[in-house]
């Protein structure tokens, strides 16, 4: 099954992807097994179909002798092909039991003609698809069982009775051809049920009396001008498509025999008028479309016989007048759409008879006049859409529409309903929503809404109302929501809303009401939200809320109120939230909020109140939240917060307070949150917060308090977080934080505190986080005493000349100490906390000049973070990272000894160290020590003496010149020593006999010490780029050896080191003859050796440069090994199976032959050309050097000239290389 799906997808990809696939016919399984041919032509079918037999395997083509069991039915399909012609012999499938084929699909194969007997033998075919081709003439015979024939989308111009002899067709699709006359051909199909002749050129329809069983007939998109009463004789006809023709009238009795017709499509024709004669007999019609004709008149009772019609579509006609009883008889119609037509008048009783109509759309018409009697008979109408019309809305217009519950009104552009008269909506007793937005209304007469007893939502937004009269809204006892936004209302009469007893929401925003008079909202007994924002209100009279007994939210934001007088809000005993932000209030009279006994939230932010007077908030005994932010308050009078016994949240941020009287908050005994941030407080007197024992959220940052006095925060016993950032604090007196018993975090960043003295943090026994300010330059001894729970301490942007002894003593539970962007001159002994509780020291962008004796504590982890993300990835082993600290000196015994924690790695990379003193690393036991990228020029004897377990030492990129045997005293366990990139001229082995890896690369060594041979355990030796002239040492364990860039003329080590596997001897002074023998030995012994890019004009082997002498008299070219490879080729597979470890060696041989045969270098290479890293070895320029420069210039010119020839011959040489590589084998029996 998977194979079949894959092949089907591949066939689709052949076409969609533009990929040319091979022609193929194969079987695939569907409901019936399908013989599927793809990318075939007529010749392929003729030649191959006769060979094909049954199969259900998608991937196989079975030939005679491989017959499998077949399924009950077969299909034949050709796809993704171009077959212009199919002759009578083009489908040779008679050997496949042709009688079992039930369907043939030849659609979209560019077919132009086919023989009349091409389907001979397919006697049981039921379905034949020939659509989407280019057939111009058709003749089909010998299809006695055909039921469905699709000839659509071809180029057939004519068919006759002889073209399609009598066939038992039930479905015939002949759409989208070029047929101009039908004739009597359909009489050959007496059992026809569905006939499609759409998209042809038919101008008339001959009799279809032979087709008495037709159920569906599609004649759309032709040029038919008329149909007679003899055209449609089938009493079974249910669907008739006559759309998109040129019909202008219907003859009387045309549908006399079509009593069963359900769907009739007449849209896009040329009807100009309709009368009742055309639709007689259609008693069962359910759908009638007449859109986009030229109908300008519909006679009364035209649809009288269409009693079962449920859908009538008539839009897009130039209908101007609806006459009386136009829709009589359409008693089953539920929806009538007359929108978008130029209807000017609707006569009385025009809709009479539409007894079950639910929705009527008359929007976007040109109605100029409507009479209430026009709606006679619409007893069940629910929705009436009259939007974008210009008729006059006169009283009693809707008195006949008692069932309407949704009325949509809106004036056309340029028309306005200047006033709404009394009884304008009388009769709409079930109406629930009325939208009068944008009608241009500027006046509402009392009684206008009389009779709207069920109305719940009324929108009068975006009109031109300027005032609201008394009794303007009477008659709507059920109204819940009233929209009056964006008018020009500047005056509301008292009692204007008096009868709206059920109103819950009123929106008045976007008007210009300057004054709220007393009792202006009287009667709104159930209103809960009153939206009065952005009204330009200047004056709020006392008792303007009288009668609004259930108001809960009052929004007066963004007005121009300047003063709140006494008892301004009396009359709203249930008010919970009062919004007064962004007004122009400068004065609040005492007891202005009296009577608001249930107010929870009061917001005054964005006003201009400079003083909060005594008793300002009297009466707000249950107020929970008071927002006084950003008012510009400079003074809080004594008793300013009197009466706020239940206040939980007070926001005084963003004001201009400079001081606080000690008793200002005495009455706020229930307060939980106090925000004093962003003021100008210059001092805080002790005792100011003495009664605020429940405050847990306290903000006082961004002020100007230079001194925190003793007991400044006394009373704030519930505060968890103390934010003191950007307060200009320079001095913190001892016990300033007394009373903050449960504070867990203190932030002091952004202050100019210079010194932290002892006693500052007394009583902060629960503080978990402390963040100190920038600019610190002194931390006194035991400055952090009292911080018994402190886990995280952060010091930011400090500048310590000396970090004094026991600066962090007393922090017993410290987990992380962060010094960020800080400069430290000297770290004294025990400056960092050193006890049994280890911690993380994070030095983020911090520098330290010197570490004194016992300055480095035993830590759990030390991290130098350049861009700290807030999270340190803890390694599995203890790791000290002192890199990038700018360290210049480490004193002897700088590490405090610890037997509990032993770091695995200590990293001093990228510092400025110059000398390592005796005892520098005493007290620490480590396995890896790195001192790379410093300026170390001296290592005192005994510097590493205590590192008995050190295994890896790296001192690269320094300035070491001489190392004696005493230098590495004590490093008995050292296995790896890296000293590359120094200036070493001498090196003594000393006690380093256990070394396995030694790197002395990139130094200035001319010779190695006599005891160098004692390094018998060496496995890796790196000596590249020194000045060595001799190297005759033998190391039996040596595996990798690098001596590139020296001045060696011989290298016997390669011959005598039996374990050697990798070697790099490039860029030495080997003669070409010696190099040839060296390479010969390396190849024979399967050594992996380094290669270089060729140097133009240089003599080389295997791209390894050599010095020309008598090298031309070598023992023979390396290419001679190819003959030996060929002779031993037969043994290759067997030997490789036995000696798999030699495969790497064989690859070396392959690489060697490739490089020898892949390049032809010209010119010669002089001994003096050898390039050294250290230029102090170069003497005076001799004749050979001058000659060399000349030769180089000639070589460059010659190389450019030979480039073209090289490119031409390159491909040929690559083919030669491939041949050589394919013949590689073992060199001799010694392998």
UniProtKB/TrEMBL annotation:
<keyword id="KW-0732">Signal</keyword>
<keyword id="KW-0812">Transmembrane</keyword>
<keyword id="KW-0472">Membrane</keyword>
<dbReference type="InterPro" id="IPR003591">
    <property type="entry name" value="Leu-rich_rpt_typical-subtyp"/>
</dbReference>
<dbReference type="GO" id="GO:0005886">
    <property type="term" value="C:plasma membrane"/>
</dbReference>
<feature type="signal peptide">
    <location>
        <begin position="1"/>
        <end position="21"/>
    </location>
</feature>
<keyword id="KW-0325">Glycoprotein</keyword>
<feature type="transmembrane region" description="Helical">
    <location>
        <begin position="1186"/>
        <end position="1208"/>
    </location>
</feature>
<dbReference type="Pfam" id="PF13855">
    <property type="entry name" value="LRR_8"/>
</dbReference>
<keyword id="KW-0433">Leucine-rich repeat</keyword>
<dbReference type="Pfam" id="PF13306">
    <property type="entry name" value="LRR_5"/>
</dbReference>
<keyword id="KW-0677">Repeat</keyword>
<dbReference type="InterPro" id="IPR050541">
    <property type="entry name" value="LRR_TM_domain-containing"/>
</dbReference>
<protein>
    <recommendedName>
        <fullName>LRRCT domain-containing protein</fullName>
    </recommendedName>
</protein>
<keyword id="KW-1133">Transmembrane helix</keyword>
<dbReference type="InterPro" id="IPR032675">
    <property type="entry name" value="LRR_dom_sf"/>
</dbReference>
<dbReference type="InterPro" id="IPR001611">
    <property type="entry name" value="Leu-rich_rpt"/>
</dbReference>
<dbReference type="InterPro" id="IPR026906">
    <property type="entry name" value="LRR_5"/>
</dbReference>
């Amino acid at each position: 099954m998977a194979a079949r799906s894959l092949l089907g997808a591949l066939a689709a990809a052949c076409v969609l992807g533009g990929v040319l696939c091979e022609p193929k016919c194969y079987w695939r399984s569907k409901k019936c097994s399908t013989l599927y041919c793809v990318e075939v032509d007529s010749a392929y079918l003729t030649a191959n179909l006769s060979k094909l037999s049954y199969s259900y395997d998608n991937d196989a083509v079975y030939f005679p002798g491989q017959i499998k069991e077949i399924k009950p039915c077969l299909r034949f399909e050709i796809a993704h092909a171009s077959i212009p012609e199919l002759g009578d012999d083009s489908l040779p499938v008679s050997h496949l039991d042709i009688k079992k084929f039930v369907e043939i699909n030849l659609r979209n194969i560019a077919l132009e003609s086919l023989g009349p007997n091409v389907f001979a033998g397919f006697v049981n075919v039921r379905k034949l698809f020939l659509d989407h081709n280019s057939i111009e003439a058709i003749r089909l015979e010998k299809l006695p069982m055909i039921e469905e024939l699709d000839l659509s989308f071809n180029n057939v111009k004519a068919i006759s009775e002889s073209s399609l002899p009598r066939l038992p067709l039930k479905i015939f699709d002949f759409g989208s051809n070029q047929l101009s006359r039908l004739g009597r051909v359909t009489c050959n199909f007496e059992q026809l049920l569905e006939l499609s002749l759409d998209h042809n050129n038919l101008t008339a329809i001959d009799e279809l009396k032979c087709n008495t069983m037709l159920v569906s007939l599609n004649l759309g998109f032709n040029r038919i001008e008329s149909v007679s009463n003899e055209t449609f004789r089938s009493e079974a006809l249910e669907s008739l498509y006559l759309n998109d023709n040129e019909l202008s009238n219907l003859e009387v009795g045309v549908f006399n025999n079509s009593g069963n017709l359900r769907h009739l499509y007449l849209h896009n024709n040329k009807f100009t008028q309709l009368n009742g004669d055309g639709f007689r007999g259609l008693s069962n019609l359910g759908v009638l479309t007449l859109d986009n004709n030229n109908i300008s008149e519909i006679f009364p009772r035209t649809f009288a016989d269409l009693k079962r019609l449920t859908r009538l579509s008539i839009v897009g006609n130039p209908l101007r007048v609806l006459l009386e009883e136009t829709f009589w008889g359409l008693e089953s119609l539920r929806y009538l759409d007359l929108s978008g037509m130029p209807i000017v008048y609707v006569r009385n009783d025009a809709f009479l008879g539409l007894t079950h109509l639910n929705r009527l759309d008359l929007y976007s018409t040109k109605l100029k006049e409507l009479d209430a009697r026009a709606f006679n008979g619409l007893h069940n109408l629910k929705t009436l859409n009259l939007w974008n019309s210009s008729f006059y809305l006169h009283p009693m217009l809707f008195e006949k529409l008692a069932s309407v519950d949704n009325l949509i009104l809106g004036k056309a552009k340029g028309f306005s309903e200047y006033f709404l008269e009394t009884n304008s909506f009388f009769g709409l007793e079930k109406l629930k929503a009325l939208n009068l937005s944008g009608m241009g209304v500027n006046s509402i007469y009392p009684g206008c809404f009389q009779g709207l007893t069920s109305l719940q939502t009324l929108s009068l937004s975006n009109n031109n109302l300027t005032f609201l009269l008394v009794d303007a809204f009477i008659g709507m006892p059920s109204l819940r929501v009233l929209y009056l936004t964006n008018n020009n209302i500047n005056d509301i009469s008292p009692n204007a809303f008096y009868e709206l007893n059920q109103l819950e929401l009123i929106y008045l925003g976007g008007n210009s009401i300057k004054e709220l008079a007393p009792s202006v909202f009287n009667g709104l007994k159930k209103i809960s939200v009153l939206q009065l924002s952005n009204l330009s209100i200047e004056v709020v009279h006392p008792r303007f809320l009288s009668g609004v007994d259930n108001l809960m939210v009052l929004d007066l934001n963004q007005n121009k109120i300047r003063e709140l007088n006494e008892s301004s809000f009396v009359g709203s005993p249930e008010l919970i939230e009062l919004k007064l932000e962004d007004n122009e209030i400068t004065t609040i009279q005492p007891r202005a909020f009296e009577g608001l006994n249930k107010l929870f939230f009061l917001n005054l932010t964005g006003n201009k109140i400079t003083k909060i007077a005594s008793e300002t908030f009297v009466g707000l005994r249950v107020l929970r939240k008071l927002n006084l932010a950003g008012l510009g308050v400079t003074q809080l009078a004594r008793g300013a917060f009197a009466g706020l016994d239940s206040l939980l949240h007070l926001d005084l941020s963003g004001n201009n307070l400079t001081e606080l009287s000690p008793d200002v908050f005495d009455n706020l005994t229930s307060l939980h949150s106090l925000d004093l941030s962003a003021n100008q407080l210059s001092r805080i007197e002790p005792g100011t917060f003495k009664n605020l024992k429940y405050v847990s959220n306290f903000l006082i940052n961004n002020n100007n308090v230079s001194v925190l006095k003793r007991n400044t925060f006394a009373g704030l016993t519930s505060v968890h977080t103390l934010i003191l950032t950007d307060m200009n604090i320079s001095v913190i007196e001892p016990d300033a934080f007394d009373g903050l018993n449960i504070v867990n975090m203190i932030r002091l960043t952004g202050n100019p505190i210079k010194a932290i003295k002892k006693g500052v943090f007394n009583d902060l026994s629960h503080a978990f986080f402390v963040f100190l300010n920038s600019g610190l330059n002194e931390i006194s001894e035991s400055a952090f005493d009292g911080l018994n729970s402190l886990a995280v301490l952060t010091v930011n942007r400090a500048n310590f000349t000396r970090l004094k002894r026991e600066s962090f003593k007393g922090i017993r539970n410290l987990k992380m100490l962060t010094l960020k962007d800080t400069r430290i001159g000297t770290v004294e002994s025990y400056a960092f906390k050193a006890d049994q509780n280890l911690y993380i020291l994070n030095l983020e962008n911090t520098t330290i000049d010197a570490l004194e004796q016992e300055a480095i504590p035993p830590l759990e982890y030390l991290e130098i973070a350049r861009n700290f993300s807030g999270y340190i990835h803890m390694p599995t082993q203890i790791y000290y990272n002192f890199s990038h600290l700018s360290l210049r000196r480490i004193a002897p015994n700088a590490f405090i000894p610890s037997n509990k924690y032993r770091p695995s790695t200590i990293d001093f990379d990228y510092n400025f160290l110059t000398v390592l003193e005796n005892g520098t690393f005493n007290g620490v036991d480590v396995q890896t020590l790195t001192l790379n990228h410093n300026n170390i020029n001296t290592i005192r004897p005994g510097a590493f003496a205590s590192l008995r377990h050190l295994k890896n030492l790296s001192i690269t990129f320094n300035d070491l010149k001489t190392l004696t045997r005493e230098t590495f005293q004590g490093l008995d366990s050292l296995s790896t020593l890296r000293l590359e990139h120094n200036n070493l001229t001498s090196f003594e082995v000393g006690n380093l006999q256990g070394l396995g890896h030694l790197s002395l690369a990139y130094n200035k060594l001319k010779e190695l010490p006599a005891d160098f041979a004692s390094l018998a355990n060496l496995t890796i030796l790196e000596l590249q780029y020194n000045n060595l002239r001799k190297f005759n040492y033998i190391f039996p364990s040596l595996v990798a050896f690098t001596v590139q860039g020296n001045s060696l003329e011989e290298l016997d080590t390669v011959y005598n080191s039996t374990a050697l596997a990798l070697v790099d001897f490039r860029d030495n002074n080997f003669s070409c003859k010696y190099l040839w023998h060296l390479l010969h030995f390396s190849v024979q012994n399967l050594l992996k050796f380094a290669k270089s890019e060729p140097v133009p004009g240089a003599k080389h082997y295997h791209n390894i440069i050599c010095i020309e002498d008598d090298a031309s008299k070598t023992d023979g070219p390396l290419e001679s090994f190819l003959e030996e490879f060929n002779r031993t080729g037969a043994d290759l597979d067997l030997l490789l199976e036995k000696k798999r470890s030699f495969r790497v060696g064989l690859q070396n041989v392959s690489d060697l032959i490739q490089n020898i045969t892949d390049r032809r270098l010209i010119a010669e290479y002089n001994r003096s050309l050898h390039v050294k890293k250290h230029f102090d070895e170069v003497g005076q320029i001799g004749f050979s050097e001058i000659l060399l420069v000349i030769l180089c210039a000639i070589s460059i010119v010659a190389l450019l000239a030979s480039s073209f020839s090289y490119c031409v011959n390159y491909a040929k040489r690559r083919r030669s290389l491939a041949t050589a590589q394919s013949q590689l084998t073992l060199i001799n029996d010694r392998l």
